[in-house]
Write a structure and sequence with these properties.
Blueprint lengths: L1 E3 L2 E3 L9 H19 L4 H6 L1 H11 E2 L2 E2 L4 H28 L4
Helix pairs in contact: 3-4
Keywords: Membrane, Protein transport, Transport
Subcellular location: Endomembrane system
Main location: membrane
Length: 101
């Protein structure tokens, strides 16, 4: 496990896995959270769990590191944010057209 400020991160690994690589993976995930949320804290993760999970999912796939570039992971997350916002706008306009908003 690693602790960052008031956040604790733990990871279960097999006996043959590299502990240093695991610690670096946790550190990289915390860096990604920190860049996305800007000084990540417990409340960021609690109230934005889906974003924290999406960042994790872009970074790790099937228990293996999928993407090592912080820039690529954050670009994918930001692109998803844009798509999600566009869909919300589209739904709002449909509701307004129907007089339900």
């Amino acid at each position: 496990f690693l602790s960052y400020a008031s956040l604790y991160f733990c990871c279960a690994i097999e006996q043959d896995d590299n502990e240093l690589l695991t610690l670096e993976t946790i550190h990289r995930y915390v860096e990604l959270l920190d860049k996305y949320f800007g000084s990540v804290c417990e409340l960021d993760i609690i109230f934005n769990f889906e974003k924290a999970y999406f960042i994790f999912d872009e970074f790790i796939l099937g228990g293996e590191v999928q993407e090592t570039s912080k820039k690529s992971v954050l670009k994918a997350v930001n692109d998803q944010d844009v798509i999600q916002e566009e869909e919300l706008e589209e739904k709002r306009s449909v509701l307004e057209d129907l007089g339900l908003a």
